[in-house]
Amino acid sequence: MYISSFMIIMGCNDWFMIWMGLEINMISFISLIFNYSMFNVESCMKYFFVQSLGSAMLMVMFYMNLNYFNYFSLLILSYKMGAGPFFFWFPSVCSGISWGSCFMLMTLQKFLPLLIISMLVSMMLWFLSMVSMIVGALGSFNQKGMKRLMAYSSIHHVGWMLLINFYDYYMWIMYLMMYSIMLLSVVMMLLYSEVLSMEMLKMSSNKWIFMMSMLSMGGMPPFLGFFLKWWVFLNLMMVSKIMLIIMVMMSVLMFYVYLRIVFSLLVDV
Prior knowledge:
By secondary structure, the chain is mostly helical. It is built from 14 helices and no strands. The longest helix is centred in the first third of the chain and has 27 residues, at 38-64.
């Protein structure tokens, strides 16, 4: 059922079928991540409410056929995937579900909204991407819980994908794949070590692996994250230098967040 939602949206151009695919995706995802713990139930209820409200607004937009359909649809889809400025629900949902569910929410659950957004390209993507990068970088400061920290990191990377989506239909898919690989290494380590906070991470024997993964996500050479961001820079260099400067500034800020985490672990080594 979960896989069928991807096939429905990828295989049709009718807006009703796209909406139906999103609904199937929501229901099947909740059924995959649900268990009877208090925090999980609360997160699932939040996710259900947010997605249902977004789907209702999207259905209204489809049938009202307004002049600014693309703009409103982009805002609604950004809301559904937790991008800035509609990020408020995303960290709290991530903090109440398992690491495996977090990984799915930060990667697979971004694919369908981004795929639909690629059909609705407009200048609004500049604003959404900028806000996502800023929110992700600033929100990561002073986060003690690892799930909330990785949630804000995901919001930052979504900003990159939204901007890339404006210029290239396929480049954002490559970025999402590379980000998923980097995130998987972090999640697997945290899941294996049963780490939920920075204090627990300092006592983990696998913190060196985590530090290298953080440096990779921050874009430090010679890790994978550096080559990914350098590849994006080269492709956007001739398109918009102003946006490129903003991306560099936010990337440096996000790298500082990762570096603070690495340093806090090093002083306890």
